[in-house]
Amino acid sequence: ADEGYKLWLEYNKIADRPAAAVYKQQLKYMIFPAESDQLKAAKAELIKGLEGMLSMHPADTKSITGGQTIIIGTTQSLKGLAVIVPDSIGNQGYLIKTALINQKKCILITAKTDVGVLYGVFNFLKLLQTRQPINKLNIADRPRIMYRVLDHWDNLNRTVERGYAGSSIWNWHRLPGIIDQRYIDYARANASVGINGSVINNVNADALILSPQYLTKIQALANVFRVYGIKLYLSVKFSSPVELGHLKTADPLNDDVRKWWADKIDEIYRYIPDFGGFLVKANSEGQPGPQTYGRTHADGANMLADALAPHHGIVMWRAFVYDNNVPDDRSKQAYNEFKPFDGKFKDNVIIQVKNGPIDFQPREPFHPLFGAMPNTALMMEFQLTQEYLGFSTHLVYEAPLFAETLQSDTYTAGKGSTVSRILQGSFNKKLITGMAGVANIGTDLNWCGHPFAQANWYAFGRMAWNPDQSSSAIAGDWLKMTFTNDAGFVSSIKKVMLQSRENTVNYMTPLGLHHIMGVSTHYGPGPWVDNAGRPDWNATYYHKADSAGIGFNRTGTGSNALSQYAQPVQLHWENLQTCPDEYLLWFHHLSWTYKMRSGRSLWDELVYHYYMGADSVKQMGLIWDKMQGKIDVERFNQVQQLMKVQLTEATTWRDACVLYFQAFSKMPVGAGYPKPE
Ligand code: GCU
Asked: Which of 102, 275, 399, 549 is most buried, by CB atoms within 10 Å?
């Protein structure tokens, strides 16, 4: 069985006969001339979807039969039909509407470009997959973000850094001759949610990726991606001119180095004429970068940008930086290194910033760079792979995490300056915009390890398209498309999904705690870690628990990381009256007996959250058990087993953290709580 392989493109048969009959009636005929590869792919997808859901294949026609015809294409491909596409939907948007053409009622899917049509077709299929009526359609949609990119942390030996779903899907040994069906299905899945870029290799990059041997293989992948509107990008190692080009330096201001990159980039474009550009991790975690040669991030990024510009390529330059001079507070470093260069980057450079200032923790406040660089293009980096969220074992639907960051108000241009609006370029129309998700994809039959981890890939795409979409609506669509339209299943499991991230925060890092996981694997609890190799890898550096209390003081009396935020945010979080419990120990060091809003002491509150977190996993399991029979046996069983493991691990997290912190608080665990197991 292949349960899970098809992702949200299951195209399950519509069991409700009358509903299916209504759909079929309206889709009897199609006018869908498809000459280009992208239109051909769109047409093949439409047919695949309709065959799956309705066991039908609309008949190709040239004339419209009122009420029974679907017309699909661009103004050019539909020439002769007088189809008008408004400029407001842009080059990647689409219209799906009930239209009158030649006085006859029909369904029209149209766009300015072939890729817009492809997006329109996927979204039309979604209407059927989620059982929406199609007799009065009027949808105009367009992406709010330009670069919607998956970052694969895939190594050339096919291991995946922080990957928990098997090996890399890129089979270098068999490329370029063998085009695995997976590449095509991967591209279909991405296009279905509007993802239009893929960085195929790890940010901890190997210079070999730029060798001709690899470029031939990469070209074969790009050829597959292109059909689905996806551009291919590469992570590059800053010292490639030395390692691959045998130069003595990789100094970005050195003429030979500049020439080496320019030539290399010309070469890449000979293989891939629509190559997207580079992603660069520089001067971070031991990676080389411009600072290695006494230059700045701007020098490094701009040098590559100059070489890419003639080809319309971009540089995604990461702001995830920290070095060997461990500061008093690692959370401040990216801001300190980048803020001075606001406005200094070339137009085709975009700074890629993680959602929070540390590292993809279960909960972090938004990164202070958002809003701090009004004259610089900034893109979001979310992590889909669950490095700090229980790998592919724990059910954690990440959309609420994404939404929490996206809807955070930075106040940098007054109230309403949300991260979402900054990412959309609302405050500076000249800037390019983007969002990246660190992929959770591997060779596992179901792609992501946990059947529900697929929802994070899906939700990322949806939010990159429109960052203001609701987590709940996305979860509902995903459940219906992936499993079933059974209303009982969808409503119960949607609640489970929406609650799941908070559950995990509760059993791992409640009340603003962070970075207290196991050393290097980042799996399981490790609040005791105090010898991880460098201070800012230690848990103790972050929680600072002692007999007096717990938490990281980032106010003016501490590291003053708060000063990196706009004043209203600063004041809000600095003031204990207004700082939300969620961020309390991120910004404050408080005594164990500190009185919380709930009336409980800080210690009791902490214990309460740990217990609530573990208990919620138990509740989730009970709800899942009731779903037996509503979906296929295979995925039902798989999720049930995963939930049992998750419960064991949540309990371990709870007990380990409560017992560890209790050694400092010396306070009892309340009588109402079960004893640690
Ligand atoms: C985390 C992760 C690393 C990764 C790094 C990055 O630190 O543990 O494996 O390389 O992030 O984002 O560059």
From this structure: 399
